[in-house]
Amino acid sequence: MNYFVAGTDTDVGKTFVTALLTRSLRKAGFDTVAMKPISCGEPGDSLELRAAADNELFPEEVTPVSYATPLAPIEAARLEHRLFEPSQVLPTFEKIRRSRRSLLVEGIGGWLVPLTESYSSADLAKAMNLPVLLVVRNHLGAINHTLLTLESIKSHGLICGGIVLNNHPDDISDAAASGNRRILPELTQIPILFEISPGQSELALAAA
């Protein structure tokens, strides 16, 4: 199973979902590892992904490009007087992709977050040419955010292989959550592969 794990926004739970899926796939016998090619701020997300794969990758393989400031990558790079180049990430990705049956790549921020003036996270996903797994925070507004993101995924020539609904502990609108669950597959014709509960530690892969 190989996916670019994207989100409809920042803070939708991409790292939690990616680490959870990594652990579950490895338990099922896959050689799954996970990358977060670019990070901004504290390295907690990268450390979580590395730990989910039993630390089989070096830190610089999990995250080839890191910026100290928790801002959009284009801003963080400017503060450090560094210019992002796809060549800083893609060779590492290609090396790992060739050596593994299963690789998950977590994007940074939302789908279209800019890495430079002319290159976005979506462009990086296109260069990697993986199907997209879209993480959606299951609250009011998710339908609009999901439809917009799926439209852009399609315009970049990529396929969304499934949706993950992430139930965040801060979201309490059961009506909105149950509506999203019903309406998103109807409107998008894309399956909800998983629905994640707060604190969940394992996924039922057979259901997907």
What would your notes on this structure say?
With 208 residues, this protein is α/β, with parallel strands linked by helices. It has a single domain (3-207), classed as P-loop containing nucleotide triphosphate hydrolases (Rossmann fold, 3-Layer(aba) Sandwich), CATH 3.40.50. It contains eight helices and eight strands, in the order βαββααβααβαβαβαβ. It has a six-stranded parallel β-sheet with strand order 2-5-1-6-7-8, with helices on both faces. A two-stranded parallel ribbon has the order 3-4. Helix 7 runs parallel beside helix 8 (174-188). It is globular.
The chain-level structural class is alpha/beta
Whole-number mean pLDDT: 95
Q: How many H/I helical runs?
A: 8
The main β sheet shows up as: 6 strands, parallel
Number of strands: 8
Assign an overall shape: globular
In percent, how helical is the residue content? Answer: 25-40%
Look up the CATH topology.
Answer: Rossmann fold
Please indicate the count of domains.
1
> What order do the strands of the largest sheet run in, or round the barrel if closed?
2-5-1-6-7-8
User: Into which percentage range does the β-strand content fall?
Assistant: 15-25%
Q: Which value, in Å, is the CA radius of gyration? A: 16 Å
CATH class, named Alpha Beta
Task: Give the low-confidence spans.
Answer: none
CATH 4th-level superfamily: P-loop containing nucleotide triphosphate hydrolases
Order of helices and strands: EHEEHHEHHEHEHEHE
- Ends distance: 11 Å
- CATH architecture heading: 3-Layer(aba) Sandwich
